[in-house]
Design a protein that fits this description.
This protein folds into 2 domains: 162 residues, no CATH class; 221 residues, no CATH class. It is built from 10 helices and 15 strands. It has a 7-stranded antiparallel beta sheet. Strand 13 and strand 14 form a beta hairpin. Helix 2 crosses helix 4, helix 6 runs antiparallel to helix 7 and helix 7 runs parallel beside helix 8. It binds zinc ion (ZN).
């Protein structure tokens, strides 16, 4: 299995470190000019893109390169190319903003790629493009930031001025730690709507007890229901003011969910690390074509949040060297983890599981998480022992077929 793992591409993990630049007053003026010119260029390109409905880098280059070079004084060829890529990226990331032209704030952070900056790590200095020519700036930072810059591959960087202080936020590539063999099986995580996440240990996240719908989970659900009603009313109204409120609401909700997902994934990864287990989640991709939609996908409202939790957990697990597997989500809520019996009748009531064959009963999400954990074990074995003669016994059962998409390697 070691052969298999080392044969796969060893991608590193992205991370960002912050450096403080110490420009002279003249250099600071040049940086200010760079920020202004680059953001102005991006807005010019963005307007063109939006007017002509052209959003891919290649077509946008054809359309906007010459206009932007003549309109924005001081913009170099490379900076123009970078601005075009930036605009294309902004529209690609946010489909919704195609409804209006994306405006780049005049003092917002601007990106630098390898052609616009060069590093002298021995001298702790970086040379940045500006409309007034290159400026070479000494940098300082926290010890671990400097160590990262000294030793790791450097990617793109964002130049930003915050309260008069010039900062460079630099993407670096962390080496990927080797994935440890999960010695105590897998921790399964069921993602839900009522309870955001329930582990195979019966822990409800982010919350206190399984029975406790009054805890934080209850709060989240109540909030969502209130928001849902509010959103419906506003959508019906359809006035510009109502649309503004809608945008603000979705932003706030977005931030809340992102924060909760960070908390949940952090807990799960720490728990897996502490107990020597891998992590298994349901693979929510690739089930779109099925006759009956998965229980989570019926809630399109928050499907992005489920995808985000998968992404966060996968990233944090990789960073900690913990095995991570996505499993087939079919029937995780109807299968009995004890006897393997699958039936809709195993779900007598909402939130309840009770096996009609062996009598195992419990909280439906907890049971689903146990099934996910079991499929994690099976899935990991399939992916990591390609030469094994027999499949794990679980493979034979239709209801617990593991999906072969382990992401630990
Ligand atoms: Zn059973």
């Amino acid at each position: 299995m070691a052969i298999r793992r080392s044969a796969t591409k060893r991608q590193g993990l992205p991370s960002v470190v912050q450096l403080r630049l110490t420009p002279t007053p003249d250099q600071a003026d040049a940086l200010t000019a760079a920020v202004r010119v680059c953001n102005q260029a991006a807005t010019v390109i963005s307007r063109l893109a939006w007017q002509q409905r052209v959003f891919t880098v290649l077509n946008l280059h054809r359309l906007a390169y010459h206009p932007v070079r003549t309109q924005v004084v001081g913009l170099g060829a490379q900076a123009a190319i970078r601005a075009i890529a930036r605009v294309a990226g902004a529209y690609a990331n946010r489909r919704a903003t195609k409804k209006r032209a994306h405006i780049f704030r005049p003092h917002g952070a601007i990106p630098y790629d390898a052609r616009l900056m060069s590093w002298n790590r021995d001298a702790r200095a970086v040379s940045l493009w500006t409309p007034r020519g290159r400026v070479t700036l000494p940098y300082t930072g926290r010890l671990e930031a400097l160590k990262a810059i000294d030793t790791l591959p450097i990617g793109e960087a964002d130049l930003i001025c915050r309260r008069g202080i010039w900062l460079l936020q630099v993407a670096v590539t962390l080496p990927k730690p080797a994935v440890r063999e999960p010695v105590n099986g897998f921790i399964g995580v069921d993602q839900g709507v009522a309870n955001l996440a329930v582990t195979s240990d019966g822990v409800v996240l982010p919350g206190l007890a399984l029975s406790g719908t009054i805890s934080f989970n209850g709060h989240v659900r109540a909030l969502r229901q209130r928001r849902h009603g509010q959103r419906r009313r506003l959508q019906k109204k359809g006035t510009p003011a109502a649309r503004r409120v809608l945008r603000r609401l979705s932003g706030r909700e977005h931030r809340m969910m992102t924060d909760l997902n960070h908390q949940i994934s952090k807990y799960v990864v720490r728990e897996a690390e502490r107990t020597g287990r891998g992590i298994a989640l349901e693979d929510l991709q690739g089930i779109r074509g099925r006759a009956r939609a998965h229980r989570l996908q019926r809630r399109t409202l928050h499907s992005w949040a489920f995808a985000q939790q998968i992404a966060f957990t996968r990233y944090k697990a990789a960073r900690a060297g913990i095995a991570f597997v996505l499993v087939d989500p079919a029937y995780t809520s109807q299968a009995c983890p004890e006897c393997g019996y699958v039936s809709r009748a195993n779900r007598p009531a909402r939130g309840r599981f009770s096996c009609t064959r062996c009598g195992l009963a419990g909280h439906a999400d907890h049971i689903a998480a146990r099934n996910i954990a079991a499929r994690g074990v099976a899935g990991w074995a399939v992916v990591n022992q390609p030469h094994a003669t027999g499949f794990p016994s679980a493979r034979r059962d239709r209801e617990s077929k593991p999906s072969a998409s382990a992401c630990g390697s």
